[in-house]
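SAMPLE LOG
Freezer: B-3
Tube label: C17
Construct: single chain, 154 aa
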Amino acid sequence: MINIIIRPPFDKLIDKDRLEYVAQTVLAETGQTKKGDISLIITDDTEIQRLNKSFRGINQPTDVLSFSNEYLDLDTGIPYLGEIIISYPTAESQAIQLDNLVSHELELLLIHGCLHLLGYDHANELEKKTMWQFQKRLLEHLQNPIRDFQDYSL
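STRUCTURE (predicted):
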């Protein structure tokens, strides 16, 4: 299950069904054979800055944060993979800078966050190359026109 929470006023700007489809596609395309629950929260810069400071020691907003949990729900037997938090204002700003639609930017950030929950990272060049190639393949599969995200600060 993909639990999506969109904080006002962004709830009226976002296609929740599309984001759920994107997350399900990432799980399927990465070979995730077992079901996994994910929470997605779309919020503002203030909340994501607070989380970024608390968990990463960086006192500024960011576009996306991922918190992997990987625990098994004892009642259902379904693993809980973790949370993804996206800042709508930062995503919007990046979309404007790069001449993208905000919806496409949100999809990229969701893909990026899901891949982190599934164990992908970009701490070194080899990991980054692998993760970026996977992101590109997923974007193509989803018919999202964002292609050149090599310089993103993800």
